[in-house]
Amino acid sequence: MACSGCTDQNALNWDVFADWDDESCEYETDPIPNWDYLNTGSNHTLVLAEDMLVELDGTSLEAGDWIGVFYTLNGEFISGGYTVWDGGTTVIPSQGDDATTDIQDGFNNNQEFQWLVWDASANTIYSMDATYDTTMPNQQLYATNGISAILTLTAQPLISEQELQLVEGWNLFSTYMLADVMDAEELFASFVEDVVIVKNYVGLAYLPSYNFNGIGDLLAGQGYQIKLNNANNLTIVGDYLTPEENPIDLVNGWNLIAYLRTEPADVIAVFEDIQELVIVKDNIGMAYLPEYGFNGIGNMVSGQAYQIKVLLEQQLQYLANNQSYKLEMTAVENNLQHYKTPQNTGSNMSLVIEATQLESLLSFGDEVAVYSNSNRLVGAFVYQDQNIVIPVYGNDDYFKEQNGLLTNEALTLKYWSNEKGEEIPLNINWDSSTGLYEQNSIQVASIENANSAFSKIDFEITPNPATHSAALNFDLREKSQVEIQVFNILGDLVFNKGTIEFNKGENRVNLNVADYLVGTYLIKLQTNSSVYTKRLLVQ
User: Fold this and answer.
1) pLDDT at residue 371 is higher than 90
2) Residues near 150 by Cβ (< 8 Å), separated by ≥ 6?
3) Does 465 lie in the same domain as 432?
4) Which residues make Cβ contacts (< 8 Å) with residue 80, sequence separation at least 6?
5) How many domains is the chain built from?
6) Could you tell me if 120 and 61 lie in one domain?
7) 22 found inside a domain
8) What is d(CA 510, CA 463) in angstroms, rounded to the nearest whole number?
């Protein structure tokens, strides 16, 4: 028995039993965008002239393509009006917000127009940059009853890959791409022999030499830390994570985040709406510290990752690439002339010295240095008549030799005087800070009179190395309360003698180390005004 129906195998309703075609075949069509908008009773007229220039990634606007204008709300593009292009002059009445409703349903006054074009034949949506006729009453900002004329619409380049330039040593990196495969082992396969370690913000690691991958897939919006034996470039091909569509969740405490924009943006402006922000740090430990009005970062840039500490869970929402952040404050540059730039060891703390502490002692251009017990330079900054925040570097556990401060090792500060041409010790009062290295800590130093002998003491340990006991010898300039503590190499407290008053002059405390495990220990001696540490080797 003959049966009618759709006989086209490419049709959605192909009937395998049909003997003849009754022209009922249905085919899949590309969905049209949902750019619906409300008529809010107020609008701004946008004129699209017949001779308007439109560039769509090498092709031109055709009849049937859509042109839409959008406003941003909570990081999303919301349609404020659109038109279907027919080749002639037309207008878009962009809708303003209806103040009688509880939600924003149109443009606010002075809100910038955002443009999208849907290429109907290619089923592709382009983000557009617009130029405006400056002879008209208005340009790129919404105004009720305003009128603007658009001269050109140019498609922003489609982003399909990102090349990350990774230096030898430690890097904080991120990507705005989402590849088909984001597994750490696969991403770094081309130069795996140079990869020492890759870590995420909670310390989970990919360690190629141990064939261990605790990271798995790199996650959108997250930053990572990597140490390389040699510089390498990493190219990631995939889909672009548009910043306005990918808000980043910030946890209470420390975060390591990606920068998703293609264009740089001022760090202060980016975090303007973030509440309870403590600090932002870049790869070398340069910081933005709102409490002290210090910006050592300047612009955030693509490919980099940033450490963020906040005291409240919230979301960070970047602006779209075709929107601009305003410049808040010029960044403080650290152009050292006397001291060499200390080695970036992959871990650091922030040492704050306020300008009021330095202004009577240092001159503009003098340089403050931080040293370890072994006299290694672990931090340095140029004084420029304002607060300074020095990145102070801790030890790199993946380096064959000690190259930074150990946990609970004391900081020694000096400064280079350009006028005198010499290095001069700085006597420090730590007040509420410890003066001891702790990764990611923020410590504040107060400067004592540079000529004061009170806080300067002679402190030595004999014998060193020690087997059964060691004598701690120290010479006080004044009577002082003294606290003596011993820490192991992990920073754990193993002995605390408590606070005892000692007289001016030579003093001696015997330390029994017979039960100590073989290894290195830090001896901390704190007087009324200063903290000293020395290393003791137990054999």
Assistant:
1) yes
2) 46, 47, 48, 49, 52, 130, 131, 132, 133
3) no
4) 37, 69, 70, 71, 94, 95, 106, 107, 113
5) 4
6) yes
7) no
8) 11
- ω before 425 within 30° of 0 (cis)? no
Q: Judge whether 411 and 437 are in contact, CB under 8 Å.
A: yes
Residue pair 294/153 in contact by the 8 Å Cβ criterion: no
Q: Could you write out the DSSP letters of every residue in 413-454?
A: EEEEETTTTEEEEE-EE-TTS--B--TT-EEE-EE--TT--S
Average pLDDT, the chain: 90
Both tokens assigned to 512 = 């029994």
Residue 75 has pLDDT above 80, yes or no: no
Asked, for residue 335, whether it belongs to a domain, the answer is no
pLDDT tier, 2 (very low <50, low <70, confident <90, very high otherwise):
low
| pTM as predicted | 0.66
Are 224 and 322 found together in one domain? yes
Of 143, 128, 120, the residue nearest 48 (C-alpha) = 128
* Nearest C-alpha neighbor of 67 from the set 112, 106, 113: 113
Q: Are residues 80 and 171 in the same domain?
A: no
| Residues 279 and 295 placed together within one structural domain of the fold | yes
Share of the chain above pLDDT 90, in %: 63
> With 60 as the cut, is the pLDDT of residue 204 above it?
yes
Last residue of a domain, one of 155, 182, 202: 155
CA distance 288 to 389: 9
Do 304 and 436 lie in one domain? The reply is: no
For 367, residues 6+ apart whose C-beta sits below 8 A from its C-beta are 336, 337, 338, 339, 380, 381, 382, 383, 415, 416
Q: Which of 447, 475, 499 is the last residue before a domain boundary?
A: 447
Give the CATH number for residue 94. 2.60.40
| Structural domain harbouring 103 | 43-155
> What SS3 state is found at 66?
strand
Calpha distance 10→339 (Å, rounded)? 73
Q: Using an 8 Å Cβ cutoff, are 331 and 295 in contact?
A: yes
* Nearest 10 degrees: Cα torsion 390, 395, 398, 401: 120
Helices (H), 229-359: 267-270, 355-358
- Among 329, 332, 188, which residue's Cα sits nearest to residue 269? 329
CA distances from 15 to 1, 9, 23, 344 (A): 15, 8, 12, 69
| Same domain flag for 151 and 293 | no
pLDDT confidence tier of residue 191, bands split at 50, 70 and 90: very high
What is the domain-level CATH number for residue 478? 2.60.40.2550
Q: Report which of 55, 98, 53 is spatially closest to residue 80, judged by C-alpha positions.
A: 98
Half-sphere exposure of 452 (CA within 13 A, CB side): 14
| First CA to last CA distance, the chain | 101
Residues 171 and 121 grouped into a single domain: no
Q: Is residue 342 part of a domain?
A: no
